[in-house]
Every structure is written in structure tokens, then in C-alpha cells.
């Protein structure tokens, strides 16, 4: 892919990220953080292609390791965020 | 439609779901669904990636997913809410390590200097995130000393490491067959992660955690460039931006610059002796009960001490008794109370305290004068009036919760030891302050027993 095109995407996403997250209230900072952390597990997508290409032994093993680590992030991150957010309640009545 | 187009469309949809999910995380009412939306985005991205025709072997992928997923699921289910900071630190580290590994593995398909540079970046940021997070984890769980660790020549050593990284990275990019240089970058990055977090003290951990969170996103972003994948770039930079914003909020709450937090361990902390007038006035649980029984407006200010004592459930019990007694109860939450941003909110939410009673510093301060009793539970620095009154104090200028404005202040504390910042607190000597010594959970439990 064209480098300038990738950089363009980068710039737009950074701006979007700032816009989105600036408005999150302090109450939700911990869930935001662990939720964002789960999203950073997106590395799994890059790892999948490398782990499954069937060519080189070392790269494949490294890819599989990356898949495992990123999966910890994805599964653990989303589950613990959900658990936390389940605690947040409004006053009844 | 070609399979490649379907995959790319899948990535676009996933990116959209991440953005939408993050937006929904901005309000307590929609946050849980937002997290779900973002999780669906992740599922779409993973399924799209699996459709890739370059993938001929699924065993490695499935093996990795099952092992990692199981570890993550068990950890997420069993972690105590008081240990959330450690958990997030570990997850950040794992994410960084994953991106670093992707960087190394991407070497097999890499061509062109730009790709090699991005590979180096993902290894560098991933490696720093990994070991930095491990050190942060060690400090938070107190397996290693939580204080700032410094030694002579630290700046010099760090400078050498940076030069070493730059030099070996440059040599590798010029000659990508020289893998020794790559391994040098890997090793130095891991070392550098340790070196940057070790001099940072426990009280600054909210900043470190959010900074590492940002790094884990940036590492994913760099890996995205290395393997030429949009969705990694978009998701990674969203996470990077979120971490940076939280870092900024934390720094502002401490009235310090980021560089001051990162490097203050290097400078010798000036120990100014503040002359404090007045005397310490301890109070018994019984007497405290009589004051609380007559109160109509109570503010509770929790700090890390509440987490250590696991006192959040006892606090909630006391709150119910006070409310049944016709008293209004609110909480004042300082942005850096605890060991990660919003730590207190999670603990109190776990104990079933409604979030609309959790007030931020700027909301509770104007009301402080109408408060009959302010109960400070294991918080020191965030209520220290020296930040307003003593110009020579190291925390002068830091916004604090003005508990001294309340009619009476109860300070729950185990001993007279000073807080993490190591500063004397004039609050304890004020006329309206009373010290309730002992473990916070037992003191509050004692108050609850008096009521019932």
C-alpha cells in the first residue's frame, strides 16, 4: 500500500481518537483504559497472517506467540471491562 | 466480489465498530453496550483476517488463540477489583509484547526501507511497553519496592541506551541481512523499558499506566505499518490517543508536566520542613459516631488506603445507615486518587455505590462549606491544604479536594506516616480535624456497629 495513504489514515484516526476520548467522564476512565487495551489486541489480526502462512518456521512460531499474547489482551480486556461496567449503577428511584 | 475486497470491507466495518464503541464508552448509560460493540468489531476483524488466502495453516493460529484466550478469560474472571491497576499493567505489557513479536515475524515478508523502519519501531515500542509494564506491575503489586529507584549516572546510562538503539537500528535498516543488529535493538528496547519506569515512584503510577496504555496502542499502530494493515493503524492510533489524553488529565491533576513525572526521580527531592502549628486531635469511634449521627451532609473522600484496607463494602454500609438517618452522602473523587485513573470509581461501583453520587473534584469543592463531616479514607496528598497554602511545598499548586472547608473532618489513617509524596499534611493539625487511627475497614466497621 502507498505510504502516504497509510500516514493519512494515521493522522485522521489520531484526531478522531482525541475527539472521542476527550469527552469521557472521570468515572469511566478505568473501563475506558481496559476497553482501549482490549482494542490494542487488534495486533492479533497482523499476527494471524504471519502465523498461518506456512512458510518459515521461526516466523510462524513468532506469529503464533503473538496470536496467543494478543488473544490474552482481546479476551481478557473485553471480559474484564464488561465485568467492571456491570458494577456501574444509577441510584434507584 | 473478490475475497480481498471482502476482507478489506471487513476491516472497514471493524474500524467503524471500534469508533462507535469508544463513543458509547463516553457515558455510563451506554458504556457496557459500547464495550460489546467494540468486541463485535474485534470479531469481525479476526474473521476477516482468517479469510486471507495467504493462510494455509490454521493449527498455529487456533493453538495461539485457545491458549491466550483461556489465560485472558481466567484472569478477567478472577481478578479482584482492588488489583485492577496491576491487571491493566500486565495486559498493556502483553499487548506490547504481541506487537513486538509481530514486528520480528514480519521480517520474513518485509521489503523496502520504510517497512524495515516500521518493523524497528514496532519492536522498539513493543519492547519498551513489555518490560516497562512488567516493572509497573512489580511496583503496583509491591513485589519490588514501589518507591522511585535512582542511581548516580542514570541519565548517562539512559543516554547510552538511546544512542545504542538509534545506531543499531540505523545499521539494521541499511543492511537488513544483519540480524545481529536487530537482536541488539530487541535487547536494548527491553532494557530501556525497565530503565524508564524504575525511577518513577508509586504515587505517579496513574500517569505511568495511562502512558503505557498509549504505548501499547502505538506499538499496534507501528505493527500495522509493518504488515501493511489499515485496521491495525486505525485501532492502534485510537488507543494511542486515548492513553495520551488520560496521561494529560493525570498530569494536570497533579499540576506537573509529563517530563517532570518521568524524570523527577532523577532530581533529588527537596525536603522542605514545613512548620505546622496546632496539635493532633485523635477521636474515638464512639465520639465519631455521635458527630455523624447529628450530621445531615457527609462527604466521603476515598484514597488508595481504602483500596488497601478493602474497605469499600464497609463504606457502602455506613453510607446506607447515614442515608437512613436522613443524611445526604456524596463522594469526592480526586482524579489521581488510587493507582490508576478512575480506580476509586470502580471500587465504589463494585460495592454498589450509585455512580451519580460520585462527584469529581471540581463539583464537590464548591459544596464543601455546606458539608457537616468530611470523611477522608486513606487519602493524603489529594486533600493536603499545603497545595494551596504553603508555597514552598513540593505539591504547591496541585488542585486538591478542600476538605478543610467542611465543618468537621475525620481522617481515617493507620498511623501518622505521611503519604506517597512524603509531605507533611497541615490538615491533620487544623482545629476542625479529628484523627481516627486504625485500619480503615475496622474503623468504619466500628461506626457501622455503633449505628446498628
Q: Can you walk me through this structure?
A:
Chain A: It is an enzyme of class 7 (translocase). Chain A: Keywords: Cell inner membrane, Cell membrane, Membrane, NAD, NADP, Translocase, Transmembrane, Transmembrane helix. Chain A: The chain crosses the membrane at residues 6-22, 34-52, 58-81. Chain A: Its EC number is 7.1.1.1. The complex is a heterodimer of chains A (93) and B (452). With 93 residues, chain A is mostly helical. Chain A contains four helices and no strands. Chain A is 77% helix and 0% strand. The N and C termini of chain A lie far apart (56 Å). The model of chain A has no long low-confidence stretch (mean pLDDT 90). The N and C termini of chain B lie far apart (71 Å). Residues 267-271 of chain B have low confidence and may be disordered. In chain B, α8 packs antiparallel against α9 (230-253). Chain B is of the alpha/beta class. Chain B contains 17 helices and six strands.
Strand and helix layout:
The complex is a heterodimer of chains A (93) and B (452).
Chain A: H1 3-22, H2 29-40, H3 43-51, H4 57-87
Chain B: H1 3-24, H2 31-50, H3 59-78, H4 84-105, H5 113-140, H6 154-174, H7 179-197, H8 205-226, H9 230-253, H10 258-263, H11 285-294, E1 297-302, H12 304-309, H13 312-324, E2 328-333, H14 343-350, E3 358-360, H15 361-364, E4 373-377, H16 386-389, E5 408-413, E6 433-437, H17 440-451
Parallel strand pairs in B: 1-2, 1-4, 2-3, 4-5, 5-6
Helix pairs in contact in B: 1-2, 1-9, 4-5, 4-8, 5-6, 5-7, 5-8, 6-7, 8-9, 11-17, 13-17
Radius of gyration of chain B: 25 Å
Q: Could you spell the SSE succession of chain A in H and E letters?
A: HHHH
Give the helix proportion of chain A (percent range). over 70%
Estimate the strand proportion of chain A: under 5%
> Number of helical runs of chain A?
4
Structural class of chain A: mainly alpha
Residue share in β-strands of chain B: 5-15%
Q: What is the topology, as strand order, of the major beta sheet of chain B?
A: 3-2-1-4-5-6
EC number (chain A): 7.1.1.1
Keywords (chain A): Cell inner membrane, Cell membrane, Membrane, NAD, NADP, Translocase, Transmembrane, Transmembrane helix
Catalytic activity (chain A): NAD(+) + NADPH + H(+)(in) = NADH + NADP(+) + H(+)(out)
Organism (chain A): Candidatus Paraluminiphilus aquimaris
Amino acid at each position: 500500500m502507498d505510504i502516504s495513504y497509510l500516514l493519512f489514515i494515521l493522522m485522521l484516526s489520531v484526531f478522531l481518537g482525541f475527539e472521542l476520548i476527550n469527552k469521557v467522564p472521570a468515572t469511566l476512565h478505568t473501563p475506558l483504559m481496559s476497553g482501549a487495551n482490549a482494542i490494542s489486541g487488534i495486533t492479533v489480526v497482523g499476527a494471524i497472517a504471519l502465523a498461518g502462512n506456512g512458510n518459515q518456521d521461526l516466523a510462524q512460531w513468532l506469529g503464533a506467540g503473538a496470536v496467543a499474547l494478543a488473544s490474552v489482551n482481546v479476551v481478557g480486556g473485553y471480559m474484564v471491562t464488561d465485568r467492571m461496567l456491570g458494577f456501574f449503577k444509577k441510584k434507584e428511584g | 466480489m473478490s475475497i480481498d475486497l471482502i476482507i478489506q470491507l471487513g476491516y472497514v466495518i471493524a474500524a467503524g465498530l471500534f469508533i462507535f464503541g469508544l463513543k458509547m464508552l463516553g457515558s455510563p448509560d451506554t458504556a457496557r453496550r459500547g464495550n460489546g460493540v467494540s468486541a463485535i468489531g474485534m470479531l469481525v476483524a479476526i474473521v476477516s483476517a482468517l479469510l486471507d488466502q495467504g493462510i494455509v495453516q490454521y493449527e498455529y493460529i487456533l493453538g495461539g488463540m485457545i491458549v491466550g484466550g483461556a489465560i485472558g478469560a481466567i484472569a478477567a474472571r478472577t481478578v479482584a477489583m482492588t488489583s485492577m491497576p496491576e491487571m491493566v499493567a500486565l495486559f498493556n505489557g502483553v499487548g506490547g509484547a504481541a506487537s513486538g513479536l509481530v514486528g520480528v515475524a514480519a521480517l520474513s515478508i518485509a521489503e523496502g526501507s520504510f517497512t524495515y523502519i516500521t518493523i524497528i519501531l514496532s519492536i522498539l515500542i513493543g519492547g519498551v511497553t513489555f518490560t516497562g509494564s512488567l516493572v509497573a506491575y512489580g511496583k503496583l503489586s509491591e513485589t519490588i519496592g514501589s518507591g522511585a529507584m535512582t542511581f548516580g549516572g542514570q541519565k548517562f546510562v539512559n543516554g547510552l541506551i538511546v544512542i545504542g538503539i538509534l545506531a543499531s537500528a540505523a545499521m539494521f535498516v541499511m543492511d537488513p541481512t544483519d540480524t545481529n543488529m536487530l537482536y541488539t535493538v530487541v535487547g536494548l528496547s527491553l532494557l530501556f523499558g525497565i530503565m524508564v519506569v524504575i525511577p518513577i515512584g508509586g504515587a505517579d503510577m496513574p500517569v505511568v499506566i495511562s502512558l503505557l496504555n498509549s504505548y501499547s496502542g502505538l506499538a499496534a499502530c507501528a505493527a500495522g505499518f509493518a504488515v501493511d494493515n489499515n485496521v491495525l493503524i486505525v485501532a492502534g492510533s485510537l488507543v494511542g490517543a486515548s492513553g495520551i489524553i488520560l496521561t494529560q488529565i493525570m498530569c494536570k491533576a497533579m499540576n506537573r508536566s509529563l517530563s517532570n513525572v518521568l524524570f523527577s526521580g532523577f532530581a533529588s527531592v527537596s525536603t522542605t520542613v514545613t512548620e505546622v502549628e496546632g496539635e493532633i486531635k485523635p477521636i474515638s469511634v464512639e465520639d465519631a459516631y455521635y458527630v455523624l449521627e447529628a450530621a445531615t451532609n457527609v462527604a466521603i473522600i476515598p484514597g488508595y488506603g481504602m483500596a488497601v484496607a478493602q474497605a469499600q463494602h464497609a463504606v457502602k454500609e455506613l453510607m446506607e445507615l447515614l442515608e437512613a438517618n436522613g443524611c445526604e452522602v456524596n463522594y469526592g473523587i480526586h482524579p489521581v486518587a488510587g493507582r490508576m485513573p478512575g480506580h476509586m470509581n470502580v471500587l465504589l461501583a463494585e460495592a454498589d455505590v450509585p455512580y451519580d453520587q460520585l462527584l469529581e473534584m471540581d463539583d464537590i469543592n464548591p459544596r464543601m462549606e455546606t458539608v457537616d463531616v468530611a470523611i477522608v479514607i486513606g487519602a493524603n496528598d489529594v486533600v493536603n491544604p499545603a497545595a494551596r497554602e504553603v508555597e514552598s511545598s513540593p505539591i504547591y499548586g496541585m488542585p486538591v479536594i478542600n476538605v478543610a472547608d467542611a465543618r468537621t473532618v475525620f481522617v481515617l489513617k493507620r498511623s501518622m506516616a505521611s503519604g506517597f509524596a512524603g509531605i507533611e499534611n497541615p490538615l491533620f493539625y487544623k482545629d476542625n480535624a479529628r484523627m481516627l487511627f486504625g485500619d480503615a475497614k475496622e474503623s468504619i466497621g466500628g461506626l457501622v456497629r455503633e449505628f446498628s
